[in-house]
Specification:
By secondary structure, the protein is α+β, with helices and mostly antiparallel strands. It folds into two domains: about 40 residues; about 100 residues, 2-Layer Sandwich (Alpha-Beta Plaits). It is built from four helices and four strands, in the order αβαββααβ. Strands 2-3-1-4 form a four-stranded antiparallel beta sheet.
């Protein structure tokens, strides 16, 4: 093998190495940007009109799984009416919170919240869910709290 042929092979390997390195860097940068974007999709911001609705249902003892199932099924209807649920929680450590079902909804404004809830409650598809959930909830012990964001974020 001549020196020129060996030099040509070495140059091709270096070129392929640079291509591989460049491809890896571009892939890493694109993946980082995509991941950063996904991380902020469900970010909750302190907009001036935005309100949060904290819902706490006291369930009849032993009925928590049934209520969870109903909320799981009604989630699509809530989304249809712009009731953006941040999350559902079932406290499991503190005995004082036993039989509680908690969820948080974010609304663009208080007016939008009222309009969206009215629309959901007027939908005939929602009625069977409501009727099946009512006997599972201790009616005198449910709490809905409207919360505004503080003027600062941590």
């Amino acid at each position: 093998m001549t020196l020129k042929a060996a030099q040509s092979i070495l140059d091709r390997r270096r070129f392929k190495g640079w291509i591989l390195l460049g491809t890896a860097l571009v892939s890493f940068a694109a993946g980082s940007l995509f991941t950063a974007r996904l991380a902020h999709l469900r970010e909750v911001r302190a907009d001036s009109n935005r309100v949060f609705e904290l819902m706490i249902y006291h369930t009849v003892p032993g009925k928590m799984p049934a209520l969870e199932s109903i909320f799981h099924d009604v989630a699509k209807l809530q989304t249809k009416y712009n009731l953006n649920v941040v999350g559902y929680w079932v406290p499991n450590e503190d005995p004082a919170w036993k039989n509680r079902f908690v969820y948080l909804v974010v609304h663009p404004s208080r007016e939008a919240a009222e309009a969206n809830w009215r629309a959901l409650h007027a939908d005939p598809e929602f009625m069977p869910y409501r009727k099946s959930a009512e006997p599972l909830i201790e009616s005198k012990r449910q709490a809905n709290h409207i919360l505004g964001a503080a003027e600062f974020l941590c």
